[in-house]
Design a protein that fits this description.
Blueprint (H helix, E strand, L loop, with lengths): L7 E2 L6 E15 L3 E8 L3 E7 L19 E6 L5 E8 L8 H17 L7 H16 L3 H15 L21 E5 L3 E4 L6 E4 H8 L6 H19 L5 H9 L3
Parallel strand pairs: 4-6
Antiparallel strand pairs: 1-2, 2-3, 2-5, 3-4, 5-6, 7-8, 7-9
Helix pairs in contact: 1-2, 1-3, 1-6, 2-3, 3-5, 4-5
Length: about 250
């Protein structure tokens, strides 16, 4: 994990938070010299920050406010849009490149669309940081994405039941064909709706084991089904780009 500093309380300004571990999820121009940021902080969740003057050529924040890099963020304000006071880069995260970079943008788009503002999820924050490390260091990006997708849904209260049937609670059997129904779970193959998949896929997913080609393919389809269900029709643009680059 990146070496984040401990959050520091402040009495210099009301409603100020200092040295908060965080990541930039998205940035966009705000006036001629400023940036509007969406950040994911460990202790405060997702929140918008106004980085005044960050677009100026000599701004010290210009080269710091990058996605996928751990930061120590300080801000103040109690309104919906708070003001960034300072941002410090923290070591420990290699830069993402190629497909890993596109996967990082996919993670950010998931968080922007599914994570409510001002809703702290420290475990999800730690999982996001760990996922960025894995994307930078490992080649099996698909397995890394499945782990994060499953973790994200669980943290948001949409746990994915993988070990027992939905109807009677019977243990999932590896060789049985099930249908997985959103908001319900795995049922025997005669059920209406959902997607068909093997019990082995569910058991492999419970162990985060995606080495089997069938498991890799069916788990991708299942997570897409569940995420689409909770996204409520929103289109993830990075997912479409990744599909063009590699089968994930």
């Amino acid at each position: 994990m990146p070496a984040f500093p401990s959050p520091v309380p402040s009495v210099s300004r009301p409603h100020q938070h200092n040295q908060q571990p965080g990541f930039v999820l998205h940035s966009s121009p705000y006036s001629e010299t400023s940036l509007l940021l969406e950040v994911f902080s460990r202790e405060h969740g997702r929140l918008p920050l106004l980085a005044r003057g960050a677009r100026r050529p000599r701004s010290p924040q210009r080269s710091v406010l990058m996605s996928f890099q751990p930061l120590a963020l300080s801000w103040f304000g109690k309104n919906e849009l708070r003001t960034l006071h300072n941002a410090e880069w923290q070591p420990g995260q290699r830069y993402l490149q190629g497909t890993a970079l596109m996967c990082g943008f996919y993670l950010n788009e998931l968080l922007l669309n599914l994570l409510p503002r001002d809703d702290p999820h420290p475990d999800l924050f730690d999982g996001y940081a760990a996922t960025l490390l894995r994307l930078a260091a490992e080649s099996d990006h698909a397995a890394t994405l499945r782990w994060f997708e499953k973790h994200l849904l669980q943290e948001l209260g949409y746990a994915v039941p993988l070990l027992h049937e939905a109807n009677h609670g019977a243990p999932i059997e590896a060789e049985v064909c099930y249908r997985y129904v959103p908001e319900h779970g795995a049922v025997r193959g005669t059920a209406q709706g959902g997607m068909p998949l093997l019990g082995k896929t569910l058991l492999d997913m419970a162990e985060d084991d995606y080495r089997d080609p069938t498991t890799a393919q069916q788990s991708k389809q299942l997570m897409r089904l569940l995420l689409n269900h909770h996204l409520g029709g929103k289109i993830l643009h990075t997912r479409e780009l990744i599909k063009d680059l590699q089968k994930l």
